[in-house]
Amino acid sequence: MITTDSVTYRVTIPDDVPPVELLGPGDAVLRAVEAGFPSVTVHARGTQISLSGPVGEVTTAQRLLEELVQVARAGHPLSPESVERAIIMLQVQHSSPAAVMTTDIVSSRGRTIRPKTVGQKKYVDAIDSHTITFGIGPAGTGKTYLAMAKAVRALQSKQVNRIVLTRPAVEAGERLGFLPGTLSEKIDPYLRPLYDALHDMMDAESIPKLIEAGTVEVAPLAYMRGRTLNDAFIILDEAQNTSAEQMKMFLTRLGFNSRVVVTGDVTQVDLPGSTRSGLRVVQDILPGIEDIAFVYLTSADVVRHRLVGEIIDAYERWDATAANSKGQRHER
């Protein structure tokens, strides 16, 4: 119900934005706007959208629609999920959704890869402006995928001559020698996620040729020892499973005109026994060094199913409670 202190604002859809691109099929985008502002009544007629309700919520809803107009004008599709993320950007993070959602990284087969959250935008901006970037956060936040997209973009624009993708094959450990097949076949399962991301961003037929020519290299971390990598975009994935010594070895492979991105989740360490994670250790060693950036992504940056973010938050609460209980027992 609209009270006497309610206001009505109107947003006009520009001539260069087809209404269906802004409103969505069956007005799905408009309904998502309405769901995000329960106290606001939303009506669309022709190119006019009216918003009625409490002045504060109507003002925010109006700004949201104006931001979505900019996104639609840039040719980027809108969905109820993108509207939900845009509302969080406005209300919680006080950021411009259009600035985030119109940042294109690389396009392939009619699909454009771009950041979807404020944290992801900070991450890709850090990669652009630093020689070494650490992307640290939970699963589903796009750490590896966006780094891969930046690597492909750098190769396509001739900023670098090759891409080097590497991961530690920690899960195999001492069992590697007992697995059937050649060494390549043994380590392939640990490198498969990198291949999968690569196939999303490049023509599938060109990838074997690029690998054969050495333009794209996908290899386990052990293969990096003793090398200097010049003119390369280098990604170390699953870095929480490196030891402190392995992390130092990897970072000192950096050559001239190269860029490094290190990704990992410090809550999912698979190292044996008392081995300390190199990703945890490096956070105490390198902060404050110029041209090195640490970007921390959170559950707010998860772009998988909504439940993934909620699961991550639930585990963090459980870990905090368990740590507190352990501390209390220790005091007793």
Topology:
Blueprint: E1 6-12, H1 19-23, H2 28-36, E2 41-45, E3 48-54, H3 55-73, H4 80-91, H5 97-101, E4 106-108, E5 111-113, H6 118-129, E6 132-136, H7 143-156, E7 162-167, H8 183-201, H9 206-213, E8 216-220, E9 232-236, H10 244-251, E10 259-264, H11 278-285, E11 292-296, H12 306-331
Parallel strand pairs: 6-10, 6-11, 7-8, 7-9, 9-10
Antiparallel strand pairs: 1-3, 2-3, 4-5
Could you give a quick summary of the protein structure above?
By secondary structure, the protein is of the alpha/beta class. The protein is built from twelve helices and eleven strands. The protein has a six-stranded parallel sheet.
Walk me through this protein's architecture:
Residues 172-176 have low confidence and may be disordered. The protein has helices at residues 19-23, 28-36, 55-73, 80-91, 97-101, 118-129, 143-156, 183-201, 206-213, 244-251, 278-285, 306-331, and strands at 6-12, 41-45, 48-54, 106-108, 111-113, 132-136, 162-167, 216-220, 232-236, 259-264, 292-296. A hairpin with a 2-residue loop joins strand 4 (106-108) and strand 5 (111-113). The chain is α/β, with parallel strands linked by helices and 332 residues long. Helix 2 (28-36) packs parallel to helix 4 (80-91), helix 6 crosses helix 7 and helix 7 (143-156) crosses helix 8 (183-201).
